[in-house]
Automatic annotation (TrEMBL), chain B:
It comes from Streptomyces viridochromogenes. NCBIfam families: HEQRo_perm_3TM. InterPro entries: AA_ABC_transptr_permease_3TM, ArtM/GltK/GlnP/TcyL/YhdX-like, MetI-like, MetI-like_sf. One of its GO terms (molecular function) is transmembrane transporter activity. It is found in: Cell membrane. Belongs to the binding-protein-dependent transport system permease family. HisMQ subfamily. The lineage of its organism: Bacteria, Bacillati, Actinomycetota, Actinomycetes, Kitasatosporales. This is Amino acid ABC transporter permease. The keyword Flavoprotein does not apply. It comes from the Bacteria. The chain crosses the membrane at residues 15-37, 49-74, 80-103, 181-206. The keyword ATP-binding does not apply. Residues 15-203 form the ABC transmembrane type-1 domain. GO terms for biological process: amino acid transport.
Length: 211, 214
């Protein structure tokens, strides 16, 4: 807790005793609702063996595993597609052609401002596709647009001299991008990319709403 | 165009529903996020543990699952509330975890000397936090809190699937009435754009007013 010690002194013996009392009191206050919930769970017979029996059936176990498999499948498709889409849109936004920049900027801003669920519903209802492709397409469009912004800020964050040096060596635009800027940008942006993929994984649960 | 003009009241109802959900859930999320952030930096260990558990549990649960837990779980305990209240609870608690983390990272950007000077003046922990550190932290966290609230507005679409009146839910009625699905969705999209762009404009103004000059 080194970063927060600026907020309070390292407690002395008296403060430690006080903190212990606070700690015990707050633990009681915070655990009381938890205990009450557990009491209610017992009260409503949630822990009787009959309520947990179904999980012993092979059919239900299989169902749960199949659900897990489908979640992972949707996540795999959605993440690969959104990474590809993100790369394409970021390339578009960084392009030297104004039209391309504008179009990809418009696409990114639109899909970032839309709820994922609206897109999934639109694809599912209006285009009449199967639930899985609808879910994957909706997630890919949304997360691809967010990732495009992540990639773009990453490329902008690479020190200017890197690109200039690469041009001075005689590399072309594409080479500067793929050999110099993108590898450094991806490394810097890896935490943001991973947390966006986690968002995609969590959002696969929206698939339930369209089945 | 007919879709909008013929069903203006339906769209308006849905739009207002989404706005209402967003406003109430934002208020809840801001209050809870503030409380949790102060818990997470508190000197008393049990508060820190509680804040960490709260954030970790809520941030890593899909919002759909949280909605199910709230809408189906709480009535089992005899807690029967209108669906709107349940939706506000789920959305607010979910977003509070993100607000808490944004606030905490803002607290970390305040120079250490500020807290040390406040303590040197003899201020207690709550005084240091509320009069010195948080006002400065608030200025740096305006943009991330704005994007969290925009995410909240977009997430409120999930509430539509749990029979709460909101914008996305209008499509069901309209497609039953036989209107063109594409245009129905165009106007829903416009509604969401108005809300999200509105929030982002509001936070832009706030950042201009209070943000840290860089």
């Amino acid at each position: 807790m080194t970063e927060s010690t600026a907020l309070y002194d390292i407690p002395g013996p008296q403060a430690r005793r006080r903190h212990l009392i606070y700690g015990l009191a707050s633990t009681v206050v915070l655990l009381a609702p938890a205990g009450w919930i557990i009491h209610l769970l017992f009260d409503t017979d949630q822990f009787t063996s009959t309520k947990w029996m179904p999980f012993e059936y092979e059919g239900i176990q299989e169902l749960l595993l199949r659900g897990l498999g489908n979640t992972l499948k949707a996540f795999a498709y959605a993440s690969v597609l959104s990474l590809a889409l993100g790369a394409a849109l970021a390339a578009g936004r960084l392009s030297e052609h104004r039209v391309l920049r504008w179009v990809s900027g418009l696409v990114v801003e639109f899909f970032r401002a839309m709820p994922v669920l609206v897109m999934i519903f639109f694809i599912f209802v209006a285009l009449k596709v199967q639930p899985l492709p609808a879910l994957v397409a909706g997630l890919a469009l949304y997360n691809g647009s967010v990732l495009a912004e992540v990639f773009r800020t990453g490329v902008h964050a690479v020190a200017r001299g890197q690109g200039e040096a690469a041009y001075a060596l005689g590399m072309r635009k594409t080479q500067v991008m793929t050999y110099v800027l993108v590898p450094q940008a991806v490394r810097a942006m890896l935490p943001a990319i991973i947390s966006q993929l986690v968002v995609a994984l969590k959002d696969t649960s929206l698939g339930f709403l369209i089945t | 165009m007919d879709v909008l003009t013929d069903n203006f009241s339906l769209y308006g109802e849905g739009f207002l529903g989404t706005v209402e959900l967003t406003v109430y859930a934002s208020a809840l999320a801001l209050v809870l996020g503030f409380v949790m952030a102060s818990f997470r930096v508190a000197p008393v260990g049990s508060f820190r543990v509680f804040g960490t558990v709260w954030v970790t549990a809520l941030r890593n649960t899909p919002l759909t699952l949280l909605f199910f837990a709230v809408m189906l779980g709480l009535p089992r305990f005899g807690l029967v509330l209108p669906f709107e209240v349940f939706a506000v609870l789920a959305l607010g608690c979910y977003t509070s975890a993100f607000i808490c983390e944004a606030l905490r990272s803002g607290i970390n950007t305040v120079p250490r000397g500020q807290g040390e000077a406040a303590r040197g003046l003899g201020m207690s922990f709550s005084q240091t936090l509320s009069t010195v550190v948080l006002p400065q932290a608030f200025r740096t966290v305006i943009p991330p809190i704005g994007s969290n609230l925009i995410a909240l507005a977009k997430n409120s679409a999930i509430a539509g699937a749990f029979s709460v009146t909101e914008l996305l839910g209008t499509y069901k009625t309209l497609s039953e009435l036989g209107y063109s699905i594409v245009w129905t969705f165009v106007w829903i999209a416009v509604g969401y754009l108005i809300i999200t762009l509105g929030i982002s404009a509001l936070f832009h103004v706030m950042e201009k007013h209070w943000g840290v000059a860089r």
